[in-house]
Amino acid sequence: MSGRRAAARAAGGGTDAARFGARERVRARRGTIAAVFLAAALAPGTAAAAACCLSTSTFGAGRLAVWEDAAFGLGLSYATAAGHFDGEGGYHAHDGYTEREGRATAFALVRLARSLEAGVRVPWVVGHRTTNDLDETGHGVGDVALALRWDAFPMGTLGGGLPGIAFTLAASLPTGRAVEESDGVLGADATGSGAASVSAGVSVERSLGTAFLRLDLGARLPFAREVNGADLRAGPGLEAQLGGGVDLGRGVVVALAPRIRWESDAIRDGTRIADSSTLELAVGPSASWEFMRDWTLQASFDTGLPVDGLGANRPLLTTASLGIRRAVY
After folding, report:
1. For labelling alongside 271, which of 34, 160, 252, 281 has CA 20 to 30 A away?
2. What is the average pLDDT value for the chain, to the nearest integer?
């Protein structure tokens, strides 16, 4: 047993350690009558004790549980835009125009140290846009995302019922095709933003028996890119997401996560472009199901609301996602 796993087992008061300890004991005593009774006695408690790790696979690629060395998977998503918000926050439904996008995103997470993990996401994007006179479809690799997560205070280490705290650092690489590089009139073959960006954030998570609450805060800084001979840079942005979920038993976790994303005015050749800031508010349920050991199905639904003031300079997107995650330890 590795030092990390032995330490987790010794810290029996933590919820991560409880689940890990249950698995280790069942394995060590499999084949004996005592193991059968022990597993039966601990099974309900193990499910409840896993509350601290429910968010590992509830939101997208998620994070690693304390007993996991790595995880990988594939997510499929389909998004449609029913309308858009103008610069003043007014909502306008699309008339004679449709916009759809599909994504297949491969992801992987790997533990670099006891409290440090790295992740990568590689999307393949398919876009489709139509008007009364035009019909365009395009596809290609999207922007690759890299991430680091440091669990500065894992849940249970601060004591007194205080939440766990983690810090994140991420980068988005302009590996996709930008709108200005599109070969079509409608830009259906655009698969990326055209510019690199870096972001930093903090994640605060608190387990509450068989439930959890998690607050994610982040700041994003895009870099400039050249568009038609001018240096164009999207404005710095902020994002917040408050998620909560509950364990329903038998490996099923459901959650709800409203979020808000704001981006300040863009800058062209050092001059701010007035009224170009963006605002996106969305909410949606998600669920995960560990249908067999180490394999988890993930599903989510995310949508904006067609109400004036709940967006700005953004399409109103509705997205459905389905994915699968494999844990390695």
Report:
1. 281
2. 86
